[in-house]
Every structure is written in structure tokens, then in C-alpha cells.
Amino acid sequence: MDIAYQEDMILNDIIDACVQRMGWQIQSITPIRRGWLNLKWKIHTDSGIYLIKQYNRERFQAYDPAVLEQAFAQQIRLRASGIPAPQLITDGHTVWHTSALGERFLVMDYCEGEIIMPGMVNEAQLYDLGRITGQMHRLLNDNSLPVQAPPLFQPPTRDQRLQYWEQLYIQFQEEGHQIYLPIVEQQRQTTITMNMDILQTLRPGWAHRDLWTDNLLFYPDKVTAVLDYDRLNYDYPQLDIARAILSCVWDGEFDLTRAAAFMQGYREVHPHYNERLSVSLQALWYMESVWWIRTGMDKDSGPPVRFVREMSWLAEHYGVLDEIIDFL
Questions:
Q1: Nearest by Cα to 242 from 265, 205, 210, 195
Q2: Cα 208 vs. chain centroid, distance in angstroms?
Q3: pLDDT at residue 73 tops 80
Q4: In the CATH hierarchy, which fold is given to the domain comprising 3-109?
Q5: Predicted TM-score (pTM) of this structure
Q6: Which of 185, 190, 207 has its CA nearest to residue 321?
Q7: Mean per-residue pLDDT for 114-140?
Q8: What is the residue extent of each domain of the chain?
Q9: Which CATH code fits 123-324?
Q10: Residue 136 burial (CB count, 10 A)
Q11: Total Cβ atoms within 10 A of residue 183
């Protein structure tokens, strides 16, 4: 079936459900081409402007519905506590909506603001993002949620990770993807020299776990919305910090001034936070590198290509991150 035709069928099914249940009069519909597989639309109605997010049926199989329900409940709580999160619209008893043909979707208020290109977030925006991230972490870890053991990220041993890189190197050789061999070799060499002890210093807690530029909206001097809480779970909050800063300030070079602005805002909420940013970035690399440097990456475009560049830079500069970011 033609993809555009299939998307139109899904949209019409969802709109029928919204009109029936909410009494909307639809004025205009604009597709939002962001995100992976899940479909999104901006909907102008007689009662306001909303965003609809449809959950791709195939991708939904990877989710635990109970975990998603918990994440949405936290999104509602965070918004009620002042975090700029989209307001979820319920059908009276649940945030989940289901269409006549079985499409699962969310309805939320449409948030104003702009998505900033990776690496281009300014100093004032980063200060505000740091402050909001600090508030979010404080609220998520105020004992309202139970401590869960273990955290989601369970670091593999050095030998396990080396085996991954060695097998990937061989596979790329066999497939004729010579262009990726230096990238994989850099990852392997960095894994050999990595100080594995840093992974024992990570402090577990509840975190957003997807805090990067595509999930942030800004005005010129502040954050207007933190989006997409699907991945919220018990993990390592300092990896939120590393992911946000790397996404917002790195564009081939690491901008210390803007990174410091984020940390200033964060430490205004957590004045005793003393984890080193260099360690957080090193741990982020160890977690994420295998997500993006993998078989099939030759078919990637958009954000995954950016993530590969980030992981390559972190691996190349792993041994000198302490010197580059010595005061953060």
C-alpha cells in the first residue's frame, strides 16, 4: 500500500475518533515530519490547537504499556509542578485514545516555540534548559516514584564490548563498507583504554532519557517545552545532562561557555551536584555508541548520522575530555 495513502487512512480514522469524542470542528491539519515511525499532526480546531501523536503498531510492540502509562502520569505531574511539558488531553479516564480501526494515539496541547538545530542552542537557552532539567530531576526523584533496581543501562564488560566492535569490523569488511572501518577501529581502541571504574560512579535515579534538541522547543532566551516522555524511566540522570549538552553545544567543537551555562542553571537547583561532565560524557559514549554504530548504518539519514558523528568525536577525544572540560 502506498505510504501516503496509508497515512491518510490513519489520519482520517483518528480524526473521526476525535470529532466524535471531543466535538471538534476541524479547521486545518498540518503533518509534522519528525520522529521515527510514529505519525504526528498539528490540528487547528474551534476549541484550540492540538498535537496528535499516533503510535506505529510495529514500534508499539517494543513498548511496555505499563511503563508508558507511568511515564505519562509523570508528564502530567511535572507539568502541574511547573515543568513546561505538553498538557495531555484525556477522554475522561485515560490519556490513551483508540480509533475505530485500533490506532493508539495521544492528544495534547500544541506547544509554541522552535526546534533549534543541534549544536546551535544559545547561552540563555542552555541556562534555562539546565535549570528546567534540574527541576525535572528533583521532582522525578522526590520519592514519589519507587527506586527500581537495576537501572535500565547495564554496562557490558570491556571484553563484551570489544567483541562487539571486532565482529562489526569483520562484518563491514565482508559487506564492503570500508568507509566505516576507521570509525569502528577508533571505538575499539577507545574501549581498550577506557577507565571502566567511572561506570561505578554513576548515580541511578529517574530520568527523561531522551533529552536532545528534537525534543526541546525554545524562544530566543528560554525553553518553552520539553517533549516526548516515552522513554522516561529509572536510569542515570547525569546521562540526561550529557545528552542534552552534547546535542545542544557540539557542532564539530565543544563550546565550553554554553555548556557552563547549562551547568550553572542545573546547579542553581542542585547546588551540591559535583559529578564531572567529562565522566558523564564518557559514560554516555559507552552507552550510546553501539546504538548508532552498527550494521545498517549505511542506510541511515538525519539524526542517526549526527549521533554517529558525536560518538566518533567522543571516542577520539575520550582521553582528553578531562582537560577539555576540566571545570565542569
A1: 210
A2: 7
A3: yes
A4: Phosphorylase Kinase; domain 1 (3.30.200)
A5: 0.94
A6: 190
A7: 98
A8: 3-109, 123-324
A9: 3.90.1200.10
A10: 27
A11: 22
